[in-house]
Design a protein that fits this description.
Helix content is about 50%, strand content about 0%. The protein is an all-alpha fold. It has a domain of about 30 residues.
C-alpha cells in the first residue's frame, strides 16, 4: 500500500510544472532575477590573508604538514 502523500505530491508537482508554471513563472521571474543579482553582487570576494594558507581553494601546498600519530600496540 502506498501512502497518500507519495501519490499526491508527485501529481501536484506534475500539475504545477505542466499547467501552472508557464503562467506563474513570467510574473515572478523579474523579482527572482533582481533578488538573485543583488545577492550575488552584495557578497564581494575578499582576498585570502595568512590564515588561509591556500586551503580555501583546495590547495594545501603551503599549509604546514602534520603527520598523524600511529597507535602503538
Amino acid at each position: 500500500m502506498v501512502c497518500i502523500p507519495c501519490i499526491v505530491i508527485p501529481v501536484l508537482l506534475w500539475v504545477y510544472k505542466r499547467f501552472l508554471e508557464p503562467f506563474i513563472y513570467p510574473l515572478i521571474s523579474p523579482f527572482i532575477s533582481r533578488f538573485w543579482r543583488s545577492a550575488v553582487t552584495e557578497t564581494p570576494q575578499k582576498p585570502c590573508a595568512d590564515e588561509c594558507n591556500g586551503a580555501a581553494n583546495g590547495s594545501t601546498a603551503h599549509a604546514p604538514k602534520t603527520v598523524a600519530d600511529k597507535k602503538a600496540d
